[in-house]
């Protein structure tokens, strides 16, 4: 039965997490209406909303606290002109990846992405990071979203465990 074995080896992908040849990165979520990239390959509106929330947690100036009573499950929005300074960038990188960026990485971000005159990462630059990452490694973007409390339907379902622990301790 070499023919059946041949067929099975062609059907079984050695890397099942890799998208099928006809699919594109950012369009692999099993939820039909929830994708990271739109049909043109740009960041979807749903992902942009999530990224605004994540960016707002670390930006300068801070967003207004109109949602203070329900801060953990209410989406934040960055104020106009907001940016990530060095401390905000380090905090975001640590919360997302477990460690701040190296100086070399920070220099690359300032060189290639949209930044303020003082080198602060703008929301446009933040979106550029996620555009490139999602095009190249969609699962990495899903992991980032998960680390900031978003599920596979791009709903904010929880905050970081440390935030919940701090609130419990303060009560």
Walkthrough of the structure:
- The protein is mostly helical and 171 residues long.
- It has a single domain (46-170), classed as EF-hand (Recoverin, domain 1).
- 47% of the residues lie in helices and 2% in strands.
- It has seven helices and two strands.
- It has helices at residues 2-11, 45-58, 86-97, 103-112, 123-136, 138-147, 161-170, and strands at residues 83-84, 121-122.
- A two-stranded antiparallel ribbon has the order 1-2.
- Residues 4-24 have low confidence and may be disordered.
Offer a concise description of the structure.
With 171 residues, this protein is mainly α. Helix content is 47%, strand content 2%.
Global morphology: globular
CATH architecture: Orthogonal Bundle
- Assign the CATH topology: Recoverin, domain 1
Mean pLDDT figure:
81
Radius of gyration: 19 Å
Largest sheet: 2 strands, antiparallel
The CATH homologous superfamily is termed EF-hand
Determine the structural class based on helices, strands and strand pairing. Answer: mainly alpha
Q: Could you give the order of strands across the largest sheet?
A: 1-2
Q: Regarding CATH, which class?
A: Mainly Alpha
Main attributes of the structure:
mainly alpha, Recoverin, domain 1, 2 strands, 47% helix
Topology:
Layout lengths: L1 H10 L33 H14 L24 E2 L1 H12 L5 H10 L8 E2 H14 L1 H10 L13 H10 L1
Antiparallel strand pairs: 1-2
Helix pairs in contact: 2-3, 2-5, 5-6
């Amino acid at each position: 039965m070499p023919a059946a074995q041949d067929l099975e080896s062609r059907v079984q992908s050695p890397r099942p997490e890799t998208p099928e040849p006809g699919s594109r990165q950012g369009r692999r979520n099993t939820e039909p209406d929830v994708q990271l990239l739109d049909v043109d390959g740009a960041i979807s509106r749903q992902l942009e909303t999530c990224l605004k929330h994540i960016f707002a947690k670390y930006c300068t100036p801070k967003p207004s606290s109109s949602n203070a009573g329900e801060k953990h499950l209410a989406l934040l929005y960055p104020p106009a002109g907001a940016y990530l300074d060095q401390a905000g960038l380090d905090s975001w990188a640590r919360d997302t990846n477990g460690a701040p960026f190296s100086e070399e990485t920070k220099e690359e971000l300032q060189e290639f992405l949209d930044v303020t005159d003082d080198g602060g990462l703008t929301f446009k630059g933040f979106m550029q990071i996620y555009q490139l990452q999602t095009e190249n490694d969609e699962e990495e973007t899903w992991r980032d979203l998960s680390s900031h409390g978003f599920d596979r339907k791009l709903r904010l379902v929880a905050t970081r465990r440390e935030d919940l622990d701090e609130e419990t301790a303060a009560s």
